[in-house]
What does this fold into?
Amino acid sequence: MDRRQFLQAAAAVPLLAAAPPPDWARLRRALKGTLVLPGDRAYGTARRLFNPSFDRVRPGGVAYCENPADVAACLSFARAAGVPVHVRSGGHSYAGWSTGPGLVVDVARMNDVGYRDGRAVVGAGARLVDVYERLAAHGASIPAGTCPTVGIAGLTLGGGIGVVSRKYGLTCDALESVRIVTADGRLLTCDAHHHAGLYWAARGGGGGNVGVAVSFTFLTHRAGRVTVFFAGWPWSKAGAVLRAWQSWAVEAPDELWSTLHLSRDRGELTVELAGVYLGRSDALRRLLRPLTSRVAPSWVSARDTSHLRAMMTMAGCSGLTPSQCHLPGQTRDGRLSRAAFVATSHVAYRPLSAEGVRALVDQVARRGSHMVLLDAMGGAIARVPAGATAFPHRQALFSVQYYASGSDRSWIRGARAAMRPHLGEHAYVNYIDPDIASWREAYYGPNAARLAQVKAAYDPGRVFRLPQGF
Ligand SMILES: Cc1cc2nc3c(=O)[nH]c(=O)nc-3n(C[C@H](O)[C@H](O)[C@H](O)COP(=O)(O)OP(=O)(O)OC[C@H]3O[C@@H](n4cnc5c(N)ncnc54)[C@H](O)[C@@H]3O)c2cc1C
It folds into this structure.
C-alpha cells in the first residue's frame, strides 16, 4: 500500500471513540496517601522493587495507600480508566509482577503490627524483620520466612516456608483471618466462616490474584530460647551430604529445621548447612549426630540465642539492629543492599535417587555463580490436608530453589530442566517463574480448579491480571 492508498483507506474508517485519558490528578485528590507520578522527584525510588533488574519498568503511577479506602479508590480509578493494577507489598516478586506499566497499588504504609492475647494483627505492608521485632516484645512470633525485607502479604498469600514451619506450619497456616479489598472496592473480612473461599485462596493461592489484602490476623506461638547452627563440608562430599541430609532433615523432630546450600561462587564450590532448633545446643548436637556420623563435616557451630536474634541471624543480619536490617530508605539507618538475581524452584515429594543426587551436584558444579537451596518441609506442614488451603504441597519433603546472581536465566533454566526427570514439575508459587508453562499444576496441583472458581466469584472482570494468574 502506497501513501495515497493508505490515506484513502484511513479516511474510509470512522474514528474510534478514544477512551478519555486517565485522570491521575483526580485520583491524587481522592487519596489520603500519596500518588507518585512520572516527573515527580520521588518517582525514581517509588517505582523500584527489591531486584534492580526491574528498574527499567516505568509505572503510570505509584499509589502509597494509607488505608483500605485508598485501595478502593485506586481500584475504582483503574476500572474506570482501564489502567492495569499491580499490587505491591515488600516488592520481592521474583518475576517483578508487583510493578508494570499501570498503577502500582502499594500497601507498605499499612504496616502496623499489633499484639493481643496470642493474636497478631499485621498490616499488609509490614516487612518480616519488623513483624519479628514487634512480636518479640511480647515473647511471641509467627512462622515466617528468612528474608527480612520481604512483605508479609506476598509471603502469606503464597504460603510462607520458614525456619519454624516444621513445628508451627507455614505462615498461611497461622492465618486466622484476612481483610481484603476486592475488585469492586468492597472491604471483606475473610475467615473460616465468612467468605471462606477467599480465605482459603489467601492461604497459598499466590499474591496479586483475587484482591488486595490490607491486614492479616495470625495466631502466634511463644518465642523462647533457640539454637542456631551451621556446618560445612568439602565439595568432594557434596553427594554424600545431600543423600544423608534428605532423609535426616525430614526424620528429625519438628523442632529442628534446616536448609542445605550447594553453591558455586567465583569458581569455589561449597556445601553448607544452616538451621534452627527450638531447644538447647546440647540436645541439638545429639540430633545432628545421625547426619554428621554418616558424613563428617569440616566444621560445626551451634549457639543458644533468643528467637529474635535467631531470625536476624538467618536473615543475614547477625551484627545489625532490626532497624539496620532494612534497605536504605526503608529506615533511617537501613544497611542492606538490593540484589539482582534470577531463581526458580522444584518441590520434592520423594528423596532424590543416587542418579538425581549426581545430577544436582553436577548442575551446581557448572560454570557461573549460583546456588541450590534445599529447605526442609514435613512436620506441621504435612499435617494439613492438601485441599484445606490453596497451598497443595503438604506431602513434600523439601523445596529446591535454583538461584543465580544477575539477570541471565540460562543456568536456572538448564538446572531445572536437568532435574525435571528426578523431581517432576511441582514448584513453589512464591518463587514464581515466568518460564514454567504448566504453572497451574506446578504451583497448585489439585487446588487449581477451586482457585479458578474463587477468582471467577470475586474478580469476574479480571481487574487483577498476572501472566500466571487465574
Ligand atoms: C532474598 C529472598 C528470600 C526469601 N525467603 C523466603 C523464605 O524464607 N520463605 C518463603 O516462603 N519465601 C521466601 N522468599 C520469597 C517471597 O516469599 C516471595 O518473593 C513473596 O512473594 C514476596 O512478597 P513481597 O510482598 O515482598 O513481594 P511483592 O513483590 O510486593 O508481592 C509478591 C506478589 O504478591 C502480590 N501482592 C503483594 N502485596 C499484595 C497484597 N497486599 N494483596 C494481594 N496481593 C499482593 C504482588 O502483586 C505479587 O504478585 C524470599 C524472597 C527473597 C527475594
Notes: The chain has 15 helices and 18 strands. The radius of gyration is 23 Å. The chain has three domains: 30-106, 113-222+446-458, 225-442.
